[in-house]
Request: fold
Amino acid sequence: MKDVSGAWCGNGSGSQAPPVWTGRAPDGEDRLPWPCVTVRAEAHLSGTELPFDAVVRDHLRSTRPAIVPEIETVEAAELVPLWNALDGLDGGAGEPPYWAFSWPGSPALARHLLDHPAIVRGRTVLDVGAGNGLASVACAIAGASRVVANDVDPWSLRMAETTAHVNGVAIEIDGRDRLDEPPEAVPFDVVLVGDLFYARGLAARAERFVRGLAAAGREVLIGEPGRDYALRDGWQVEASIGVPVSAELERARAIVVRVLRMTGPHVADREPPAPRRRTA
Reply:
């Protein structure tokens, strides 16, 4: 993994990326992304490196997703070595570090939006279940006027901060659970949903959320990789995209992700791109 401390850590050398909303530590200093040699956390401001951050940094590397080479991400090469290393810090009680990967819905949405930037250009975007922020960054690159990456996992949001930082774009970070909010509480032109239909309870909440937004006239795009609780109706397919994936996570080397556009009685008409199949 490359050493980016001079480029992005704000130590006076190298270029500086545009500001990314991260919140500020009590001493007024922005929190730094994981690739930096020294990582500051809100509860640890002495300038020394946390053991957790050292382990994470040692297992992440800079990469570019195969179908979205325009965007740089920082990801783990393998799940188990990182998980084992983190377990060594907390006695084996940790959850799998799924936040260290691009889940397939996100690169499919990112590819589609970069191919069709008019969908988000000049518009406000909320990326729900943003994970590492890949789709959020694609929106910023495509010219969205405002992009908010939303996820309830704080480590996913930290990855989203990092992805925005290394690509030199500005996004906002939102850690609230928004799935039960009514449409009037979600004042965005476009809402993206990556991969929220893998568990029954979560999928039911996500379905109510997206159907409500579509009925209120919002444009909702879903990256759907064939999960068990995927929506059965109320959408049209805008693209089918082959996404390379980790066999550790998906038990496959590639899967087809459908980019779905929710339909509803008040969704503004837009001539959709011709449905097509894109391979990695």
